[in-house]
Write a structure and sequence with these properties.
Layout: H1 6-16, H2 26-45, E1 53-55, E2 61-63, H3 64-80, E3 85-88, E4 92-94, E5 100-108, H4 110-115, E6 121-128, E7 131-139, E8 144-149, E9 153-156, E10 159-160, E11 173-175, H5 179-184, H6 188-197, E12 200-202, H7 207-214, E13 220-223, H8 228-240, E14 244-246, E15 259-262, H9 267-274
Parallel strand pairs: 3-5, 11-12, 11-13
Antiparallel strand pairs: 1-2, 3-4, 5-6, 6-7, 7-8, 8-9, 9-10, 13-15, 14-15
């Protein structure tokens, strides 16, 4: 069976789905091409019986597909954007000379990937002069892709997306990864109280929680531990969809080590409920 080319088809629909919408810029087009390349590698090894899995020093798993994907994307960037820097989860950072760097998470949700659960994806972002301007999340096993560029709106599978209009926590759907993570970081009691207030709390973990907020299916997502490569594409996608992205201190940054995404209407209440607001921000 011929595999569908997610990015190429989505790129065409995304550029024409809304009359008068801005055209997809060159950087976003390149990011979508990188996502296509990543999908080819990750899908080829997904659920492979001979998949090589190792444990990193932080005790998280890494597969041959993680490493092969990051290497391939890095090589493509070095060949076609030689002045751009690259930072990735598996191989660290190579500096550029033009105030631009690509931020890569070859497989976000490696634990799901290893167990044959389709809720994993490749995350790609472009940072320009300290601002995240392009973000792509490609989840080929789910046959989904989300993307955004600054000023260009946010899209899922070629259709524009917007956050929800839920304004009360009691009516909200909360997404998260795991309760033990909140316990470990001294937020167990606060998180349980927040979850108890919500209409529902579901463990749609990793990137998925936050793009669900962007497309309006969920209303808020909270993670106490996030890396730069986890956060970078999510920030621009959520914000271009009309939502808000901060760390637990309420700072709109991707390197704060945590993530709170909401439809905007709920954000202050969520920060207050978690009790980690930065009074000096």
């Amino acid at each position: 069976m011929r595999r569908r080319r997610h990015g190429l088809g989505h790129r065409a629909r995304g550029a024409t789905a809304v009359v008068g919408s801005p055209p997809i810029d060159e950087d976003l087009a390149f990011a979508l091409e990188l996502a296509d390349a990543a999908d080819d590698i990750t899908l080829a090894r997904y659920r492979a019986t001979d998949l090589v899995v190792e444990t990193k020093p932080d005790l998280t798993p890494v597969t041959e597909a993680d490493r092969a994907t990051e290497k391939a994307l890095q090589a493509r960037i070095e060949a076609e954007r030689p002045r751009d820097g690259v930072v990735g989860e598996e191989y660290g950072e190579t500096t550029g000379s033009g105030g631009r760097r690509w931020i890569l998470d070859p497989i976000d949700g490696t634990k799901s990937y290893v167990r044959g659960i389709p809720a994993w994806g490749t995350l790609i972002a472009l940072e320009r002069d300290g601002e995240i301007v392009v973000g792509v999340v490609s989840a080929p096993a789910l046959r989904r892709r989300w993307w955004a560029s600054r000023g260009g709106g946010a899209f899922a599978d070629g259709e524009p997306i917007r956050v929800s209009r839920v304004s009360d926590i009691e009516d909200a759907l909360l997404c998260y990864t795991s309760l033990p993570a909140f316990e470990k970081h001294g937020l167990g009691e606060e998180f349980r109280a927040l979850a108890a207030r919500c209409w529902e709390a579901r463990g749609f973990s990793d990137y998925w929680a936050h793009v669900l907020v962007a497309e309006g299916s969920a209303d808020l997502a909270v993670e106490p531990v996030m890396n730069l490569w986890d956060n970078a594409p999510l920030q621009v996608i959520v914000e271009e969809a009309g939502g808000r992205f901060t760390d637990l201190a309420g700072r709109p940054r991707v390197d704060g080590g945590s993530a709170v995404t909401t439809n905007g209407l709920l954000h202050e209440a969520v920060l207050d409920a978690l009790g980690r607001r930065d009074a000096d921000r």
